[in-house]
Write a structure and sequence with these properties.
alpha+beta, eight-stranded mixed beta barrel, 26% strand, 26% helix, elongated, 3 helices
Length: 221
């Protein structure tokens, strides 16, 4: 009798699985369909935003480095130690960036390495060339010392000018967008054909940052 009862339970469980399995499969398919719909609804056309797959990884590394405490501030809480040797080639600026509203002028180094980000802004080589068609991204730490690096970037307004001097040429960009985004939002680096854009990236908020402050500008004509 006990065996028959156990067998009946087995049949009940099998029956429930038979009923629920299609529902579970449908739910999974609905989730996949939803993802595809979202992807399909992204802007498309000849002016599409395009970036190489490697840019996502590069932006993720940059985003992580931005949350690291700048060396100058870290030293305030640790015993003094000699600074590591840095080759002159690594420290050769490719440009300077100036913003009069916040009294900023910084050298721009190529590559978002920890060494480069110590005391300069950095250009992401996977993004556009400064002054040319594309979206050139420049990032810097949001140092806590007032006026240091991109500490005051949040004070910019629409229409403010950003001046970049690179390779003997001067490029004047006009700010058209200021926003705070998730640290994984690589869409801020999207590039449009023929448009000459500049994207500045730093952390937000100033203390214990969880997001990224993005300032975007177009080359003035």
């Amino acid at each position: 009798m006990l065996s028959l009862r156990k067998l009946s339970y087995v049949f009940i469980v099998l029956g429930l699985l038979f009923i629920l399995f299609p529902k579970a499969t449908e739910w999974n398919e609905d989730q996949e369909q939803s993802k595809l719909l979202k992807a399909a609804e992204l802007p498309s056309g000849k002016n599409d935003a395009l970036w190489p797959p490697s840019l996502t990884d590069s932006y993720a590394r940059l985003s992580t480095r931005l949350t690291e405490v700048p060396v100058s501030e870290a030293r305030q809480n640790t015993s003094p130690s000699p600074a590591p040797m840095v080759s002159a080639n690594e420290q050769t600026p490719i440009a300077t960036i100036s913003i009069s509203r916040i009294a900023l002028k910084l050298p721009v180094l190529e590559g978002a390495t920890r060494i480069n980000m110590r005391h300069a802004a950095v250009h992401m080589p996977e993004t556009g060339t400064l002054g040319q068609a594309g979206n050139a991204a420049i990032a810097a730490h949001r140092a806590r010392t007032s006026g240091r690096l991109f500490n005051r970037l949040n004070e910019l307004k629409i229409g403010d000018k950003i001046v970049v001097n690179a390779r003997g040429n001067q490029y004047v960009y006009s700010v058209y967008s200021l926003k705070v985004v998730d640290p994984t939002d690589v869409s801020v680096l999207k590039s449009f054909k023929k448009q000459k854009l500049l994207t500045l990236i730093t952390c937000d908020p100033l203390v214990n940052p969880t997001h990224r402050l993005i300032v975007q500008a177009k080359l003035s004509t």
